[in-house]
Every structure is written in C-alpha cells, then in structure tokens.
Amino acid sequence: MLKGKNILLGVCGGIAAYKAVEVASSLRKKGAHVDVIMTDAATKFVTPLTFQEITGNPVSFSMWEKVHTWNVEHIALAKKADLILIAPATANIVGKIASGIADDMLSTTLMASTAPIFLAPAMNTNMYNNPIFQHNLKLLQDIAHYNIIPATTGHLACGNAGIGRFPDPADIIEIIEKFLGQKKDLIGKNILITAGGTREPIDPVRYIGNRSSGKMGYALAEEAARRGAKVTLISGQTSLTVSSSIELIKIETAKQMQQYVEEKFTDSDIIIMAAAVADYCVSKVAEQKIKKAANNFTINLVKNPDILLNLGNKKNPGQILVGFAAETQNLIEYAQEKLKRKNLDMIIANDVSKSNAGFNSDTNIVKIITKNKSVEDIPLMKKTTLAGIILDKIQVMENS
Ligand code: CTP
C-alpha cells in the first residue's frame, strides 16, 4: 500500500518526537517516499539530521531556511503529499489548525493541502482531556479530510499514567496502510442517510412500529464514511452502532426524522432515504397509559408527511436523491412510480416477501432503478457488499 506513496510526516515538539523516527523509518522500509517537516519545538527533541538520514530527504523546519530546490516549499510539499501524518500532534498544532492559524512551515503546508491528514496527538492526560483541546480535536474530526488516531492509555513521560500516550508506531502504520488501500472516491462529499424504522407513539408505553432493522442504512453509512464522505445518519431505534466519524442522530417518529432531514438537506450532496418511515401516526397520543376496557379498540390514524416526496419537490441541481421501495408485489412497476412521483434519481427496489431479502436480514436481493429507466438486477448478497454497489452507481451518476 505504501510503495511509491508520498507521505509527508509532520513532527511536533513533544517527547514522543523520538518515536516519530521509528514511524519515518517504517514508512521508508515499506517503500514510501517520506518528506519531513519539523516544528521549531520538535527540533529541540530530535535533530533534523536524524530524519534526514532516515528518510534520505532534506528536512524542512523553517519558512525562512530553504532546504529544497522548489520555489515555494510549503506549496510544493502540500501538493506532493498523497497523505500527511502529524505524529506526534501537540495541543498547539491541533489548536492552530482548528483556528486557521498558519504561522510556520508545518501549519502553512497543512493550510495549503487537500490531502488526507492524519493526526496522532500525544500529551499529558490533563492536556489531552482539556475541554479546549477536545473541542479543537472535534472540530478537526468533523472536517472530511482530517482523521484522528486516538492516543492510547498508559505510562506517560511526565510520570503520570493515563490517556495521552503516543500509539504504537506499528499501529499508526497499519491505520495508514488500511486507509491507502481503500477506495476514497467520496472525499469532500456530504452524504445524508436515514435508516431504521420510525415509531409512532400510541400512549406512554406503546407505539406503532415496523420490522426494519436499520442494517441497510447503517451499511451504507459505514461504506460512505470509509470512502471519505462526511456522513450524517438519521436513525430510528436500532441496536446497531456506527463508527465515531459518522454523525448519528437518533429519532423516534417520522416527524422528528423529517425535522433533522430538512435541517441537513441543503448541505447534502447525496441523500439516501433507507428508513422505513411510518405512513401514519396516531391522531391523538394518549397522555396516560390506555387501560383495557371494551372488547374492540380503535385507533384513529392520520397521515405522516412523506419526507422523500418533500425533498424531491425542492431538490437542487446537482443533488442526488435516492429512495428505497419495499414491496410485496409488482416490484418494478411500483418502484418506478415512486421514483417518478418523488422526483428521485435512483430507487432501490426490494421484494420484502422473499426470504433473505429486506427487513431484518443481513442480505438483500434488489433491483436498482434509475431515472433514465435502467433496471439492474442485483442478486442475493450481503447488505454490506450491496452498500458498495449502490455507492458506485451513485458515483457513476454524479460523474455523468
Ligand atoms: N418515505 C418517506 N416518508 C414517508 C414514507 C416513505 O420519506 N412517509 C420514503 C422511504 O424512506 C423510502 C421511500 O419513501 O425511501 C419509499 O417508501 P415506501 O414505504 O416503499 O413507499 P411509500 O411512499 O410509503 O408508499 P407505499 O407505502 O404506499 O408503498
């Protein structure tokens, strides 16, 4: 994975700077071309000469001392990098990036780069837990091309034990290799996905629900995040968990789902409605538990908003809107009708009466129908694999 890749290693001034030497050495051994930028403080811990010898390349540490032949060194380094790793990342560099400060070789290079950036923060436990540092870290985490390699817990150079330890260099290399081995075609995209079934309350203890497990929507969210997208997942109640890079908003009712979907809609490039939204809700939810009385009991239901239909009506040029159609008969006909009525770009139709397909199953059998009337049969496969195929098709549609 690392062979022939240009890795820019940013080294900041912390005691773990000496461990960055091992990181640089491993990267080189695995065939990467490694450039190093050191902050001024880092040079007090390890000399630039050490990194120069390890990488075979000149080391940049000052805006004012040219070490390369390029005219504008920070721009050239930023452009050249396939990936930037800052290890160790101090509270100072995290704070600078989060505040948009570019006042030395490393921070200006980061500002000029569009490459994926990995930060491995390492510092004293109190510094690590400091709410300002955590706030800054969260800010970076929310930016699509920033990735945080969390510090580990253990003995620290300051004598304390706790969180803030520099991760094992081998683990850092493994994370980077895994990242470089993945398809990253959704970097810079904001994707909004809904998943799971909504619940419509009857009284404080009962609700009307459906059999959706949320597995399809969660698989799509994970795959999109892995491929570099900034993902917001609006989910009904499920037992599933998601990676921390995904913004997860849990809701209960269709109206709550609609509220968050509408909030996120404008900023989303791709919207995938995989949720099983209840078409009706109870007209008047009882404030107290309904007691058993007569033999027959009637609940009056009123129509819920159709979230997808509303989005289709106000879709902006360039936005891609994808729906799901759960059917038990006339699959293609019903799905095509929904695609047209809701102004969708694509609909994933599944016959939920088939075993191994649809609700609460790990697998699915679907037809992918697009607005240009193409219908593609996708055979039985895991929902996690199907998620990749759906995102591939969306990508093709976006680029055509
Ligand atoms: N959907 C929605 N809001 C609703 C109902 C459905 O946004 N109130 C979305 C679903 O998330 C799905 C698509 O619309 O992506 C189709 O949902 P489906 O339940 O198959 O169809 P309906 O439009 O509800 O029509 P019907 O129940 O009559 O089949």
Question: How would you portray this structure in words?
Answer:
The chain has helices at residues 17-29, 42-45, 48-55, 73-80, 91-99, 105-112, 125-129, 131-141, 169-180, 215-226, 254-265, 307-314, 331-341, 383-399, and strands spanning 6-11, 33-38, 59-60, 83-89, 117-121, 146-148, 152-155, 161-165, 190-195, 200-203, 206-208, 230-235, 247-250, 270-273, 280-282, 301-303, 320-327, 346-351, 363-370, 375-382. It has 400 residues and is an alpha/beta fold. The chain folds into two domains: 6-180, Flavin prenyltransferase-like (Rossmann fold, 3-Layer(aba) Sandwich), CATH 3.40.50.1950; 190-399, CoaB-like (Rossmann fold, 3-Layer(aba) Sandwich), CATH 3.40.50. The strands form five sheets. It has an eight-stranded mixed beta sheet with strand order 13-12-9-14-17-18-19-20, with helices on both faces. Strands 3-2-1-4-5-6 form a six-stranded parallel beta sheet, with helices on both faces. It has a two-stranded antiparallel sheet with strand order 7-8. β19 and β20 (375-382) form a beta hairpin. Residues 254, 273, 275, 277, 279, 304, 306-308, 323-326, 338 line the site of cytidine-5'-triphosphate.
Arrangement of strands in the largest sheet = 13-12-9-14-17-18-19-20
Percentage of residues in strands: 25-35%
The number of distinct structural domains comes to: 2
Helix coverage percent: 25-40%
Under CATH, the homologous superfamily of the largest domain reads: CoaB-like
Distance between the termini: 30 Å
**Rg from Cα:** 26 Å
CATH topology of the largest domain: Rossmann fold
Question: What is the count of helical runs?
Answer: 14
Average pLDDT works out at 93
Query: Main β-sheet, in a few words?
Result: 8 strands, mixed
* Number of separate strands: 20
